[in-house]
Amino acid sequence: FPAPEFADIRLAQAGEAAPNGEPLRAIRGIEVGHIFKLGDKYSVPMKAGVNDSEGVFRPFQMGCYGVGTTRIASAVVEQHHDDNGIIWPVALAPYDVHLVPMKYQDEAVRATVDGICAQLRERGIDYLLEDRNVSGGVKFADADAIGVPFRITFGRGLANGTAEFKVRRTGTAEEVPLDKLVDHLAEQIATAIAEQR
Asked: What three-state secondary structure class fits 63?
């Protein structure tokens, strides 16, 4: 029989009948990996293969797959963001917490923040320290844009022995005593990871 002709006539639309009679649904997808059939393109030049049951050499039929780390990051950002920036899921975030002191150049503030940093290192908690001498508005805007899951702000509350603990995903904030800050953060990280499984 002669080969049939193939042509792109039109794209299927959501709501049209699928072959099983159900209406088609249109959904978005993100390609983060792919599989390639290589055949014997590489096995023949490499003389890689096996002898079959009759002793005839057969080159391997090869394939490969790839998962793009940059594609994964792009997909995460596309799915987890708001108008202010990225909202990293805890399991994939580059840091666990963003430390934002209002006046890091002040010796007393620096001593407090550096003490918290030491506790975080002991616990294996990754942190990003905001040490620029810029306004609070710039610091907060940049923190939201970067999207680390938790933010600790060392500001007015320091006079009362507290710091502001903010969850990036929900925007909720609370004052937490400095001596309970690291434990509170560790609990929040564990809870978030459990919820994301």
From this structure: strand
